[in-house]
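[Automated response] Your request has been received and processed.

Submitted sequence:
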Amino acid sequence: MAMFPSITIGKVTYNSIEVSWENDKKTLHHIQISKARSSSPSPGAPALDPLTNYQGYGNSHVFKSLEPNTEYLCRSRFVDGSQQTLGHGAARWSQPNHVFTAKEPPSGAELHKAVARQDLDQVRKILSENNSVVEVMDKFGLTPLMVAAQKGYIDVMETLLEFGADPNYFNSSGKTCMMISCYSGQEEPAKLLRERGVEWGSRDKNGLTSVHWAADGGHDDLLLWMLKDGAQVDLEDTYNGWTPLMRVACLSGNDEVAEVLIAKGADVNRTDKSRKDRAYGGLHERPL
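Generated structure:
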């Protein structure tokens, strides 16, 4: 039998190292991985700061929770059956293998900063290195695509969509990119989302649609395009049973928005859950 188990370094990530070795399943192995230090505690001794150990009869192990971009030393030894402890009396250690963990991948916060700067090169770089952050929300509950839609950053939106951002993704309150775009009055982002297959009928947790949100935002020109594009004018929310026109009558009093809704068929006599009609005066009698 060899003096030491012969180990092979497998997959290395920013926080893990895979180690494998040959084993007849009868011999107890002890594998140790430790962070290298800048100086050795004594001449000729490996600079080992014990971190993690594996002892068993297997032939592979993944050491996890390591630090990124850090040098580690991996060494091995056999353990006699009568000395199955990690510390004293076991066989000598092998010379250590030197392994560097990878650099930590870019975070969602870095992606949001790149989106805010409209830095397309950085957005591409981050998502090429770590695509898992494409839907990470900021402190306001917005994904990068939602932020880009809110701000009207078409080029950024197209880049995020290219890297797999979901145009139908909804946050914890049920809001979608389309709703956020419409509330912000961003027509071009809304058109792009429609091109990517987003439907008008999605609702948030209160049952509000994109038409409700465009009306709440006071965007009459955007509403006119939405309704011409097939959005329904009289869908009710689930909380009060209010249509977009009812919300305008009760919340904003925006005449221009009300005129567009009425011109496109909003029912001025519609009643809500309390059986009140929330009528918007005589606006339905005014010509556009």
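Summary generated for your ticket: The chain has a mean pLDDT of 87. The CA atoms of residues 92 and 227 lie 78 Å apart.
If you did not submit this request, please reply to this message.
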